[in-house]
Amino acid sequence: MNVAPLPSSPEVGGTAREPSPSDIRRWRRYLADERAEAAVYRDLARRRSGEEREILLALAEAEGRHQQHWIALLGDDAEPRRGGDTRTRVLGFLARQFGSVFVLALAQRAESRSPYEMDADATAAMAADERIHEEVVRGLAARGRSRLSGSFRAAVFGANDGLVSNLALVAGVSASGLAPGAVLLTGVAGLLAGALSMGAGEYVSVRSQRELLESSTPNPSAGNVVPDLDVDANELALVYRARGMTPEEAAARAGEMLADHALRDSSDGGDDHEAVGTAMKAAATSFCFFASGAIIPIIPFLFGISGIAALVIAAVLVGVALLATGAVVGILSGGPPLKRALRQLAIGYGAAAATYLLGLAFGTVVG
Questions:
Q1: Is it the case that residue 232 has pLDDT exceeding 60?
Q2: What gap in Å lies between CA 92 and CA 280, rounded to an integer?
Q3: CA-to-CA distance for 198 and 315, rounded, in angstroms?
Q4: Which are the contacts of 189, defined by CB distance < 8 A and separation ≥ 6?
Q5: Most confident of 79-93, 199-213, 288-302
Q6: Which residues, 6 or more positions from 99, have their beta carbon under 8 angstroms from its beta carbon?
Q7: Residue 67: which region, alpha, beta or left (left: phi > 0; alpha: psi -120 to 50)?
Q8: Which of 153, 16, 41, 40 shows the shortest CA–CA distance to 88?
Q9: What is the DSSP string of 174-220?
């Protein structure tokens, strides 16, 4: 979208006015943010190729048009340049270092918080641009999420399950009155048993899912027989009807394929196998991340700490880890990281509190 030429000073109610110091500060902040965001998109584009690179460069060009709007308003006050806000500078650093889906997810949230719709000094076209940019970045981030969804899911679930289950296990047996050595042994056993169980379960789950996908994938050798089909009977149309097309759509597609002498898949071209991930990679990821999460609750016991002090330290360490995993999930999903982090923390502490109370009750009955 093109930004219309602007007067040298803004107008309020149709009357030109001189910008106030607060106007100049706000416009300079907007200009710095636009420059920083354009740099983020260019940095990301350097690590992409093909269509994604073109899209990112087009976003950078659009941010450049927005820069010209604020430069026109600021005039001589556009220089010297100032840095963007902390959020945008962090995005730029991450883009230069990693260029990953994390940056795209953060950029998606940044675009969604554009103040232009509520600012009279920004044009309607600029506000519309920012809203569309959010959807463009959302689409790019979705591509990245699909590429890492299998292993990422295993990593997040594995780490979260390790943290919650072993904290709950340690809290429960500790509250029942077991000796510190027995609590440590129980925690180590829970770590090994849980990690092996998670790894095996993830392997079976992903392997089964890939086999189901493979059984639904068209056989490429079927295309070799298309030239020999009876054109009048046109059984090729049944293939497309079985894939969900209406009889009319199937007949039209079959006619096209007979003319081209090829049998084509009617899917949207997405790689479902890529989204699922490989079974061995998912299993290894789940095992390692479960173990890394499950070891945190037993760290105090490894250093000889026992009793309530050990439980408090374990709860604090696990709480920090739960906040981190929840925030990562929030960032990648495009949602509010703090809300997801607090949700993870509440679930983990809730499970630990329940098993601790059960351990107290069991210890009292046995004692």
A1: no
A2: 34
A3: 22
A4: none
A5: 288-302
A6: 43, 44, 46, 47, 48
A7: alpha
A8: 40
A9: HHTT--HHHHHHHHHHHHHHHHHHHHHHHHHHHHHHHHHHHHHSPPG
Q: How confident is the model at residue 276 (pLDDT cuts 50, 70, 90)?
A: very low
Pick from 119, 131, 127, 123: nearest CA to 5: 123
Give me the helix-helix angle, 124-175 and 279-294, nearest 10°. 60
Would you state the structure tokens that stand for residue 239, as one six-digit string? Answer: 């293939």
pLDDT on residue 16: 52
Half-sphere exposure for 238 (CA within 13 Å, toward CB): 6
pLDDT for the residue 38: 87
User: End-to-end alpha-carbon separation of the chain, Å?
Assistant: 76
b/e for 228-264, b at 16 or more Cβ within 10 A? ebeeeeeebbebbbeeebeeeebeebbeebbeeeebe
**Helix (H), strand (E) at residue 11:** strand 11-12
Classify 361 as helix, strand or coil. helix
How far lies 23's CA from each of 14, 27, 347, in Å? 17, 6, 45
Q: Cβ contacts of residue 341 below 8 Å, gap of 6+?
A: 322, 323, 324, 326, 327, 330
How confident is the model at residue 337, as a pLDDT? 78
What's the whole-number mean pLDDT along residues 85-97? 58
Question: Over the stretch 170-193, which tens digit does the pLDDT of each residue have?
Answer: 999 988 888 888 899 999 999 999
Residue with tokens 């709860």: 315
> 0.85 exceeded by the pTM?
no
pLDDT for the residue numbered 127: 86
Residue 55 in contact with residue 111, Cβ under 8 Å? Answer: no
Arithmetic mean of pLDDT, 310-327: 91
**By the 8 A CB rule, do 28 and 85 touch?**
no
Give pLDDT tens digits for 44-56: 888 788 888 889 8
